[in-house]
Every structure is written in C-alpha cells, then in structure tokens.
Here is the input.
Amino acid sequence: MKYLVTARDRTGKREEVVSLPAGSTLRDLSEWLRRTYGLTVPDPLLMATLNGKGWNQYPEALSKVLKEDDTVCLFPPISGG
Here is the structure.
C-alpha cells in the first residue's frame, strides 16, 4: 500500500504492507482503511488504484479479490489544464 500527498498526511506513512485474510476484496481493504485511518475509499477526494488501474476499472469493482503481490496507491485526484 502506497500513500501519496494528502493520503500520506492522513496516515503518517509513505507505504506499508497490509495483511488481510486470503480471499479479501477491495471492499475488505476499503473497510480496513476506514477503521484504521478514517479514510473513505472510493471517495471523490481520494483516488485509489490497484496495480495501476482505478478500482472502478475492474469489472468486479469492490468485489475484486486481492492477491499477495498487489499494489494499492491512494492519492488526491489529479487535474490539469
């Protein structure tokens, strides 16, 4: 798990290894983030990726089962002009 910018400020960490039971999903991780850091994911003010893809890009959405080598990043929305 990697935390960037405001997510890093909220957690006090740049990254950490999160251990969840086998078969855990993005929904389970989302609940862990809420309980542990008070972070709500998905949230319009906090982007979340799994292995470089937005959580909503997976057909399973929050039911996507996590694997041991997955990388999740949390960061504020990016905008440009």
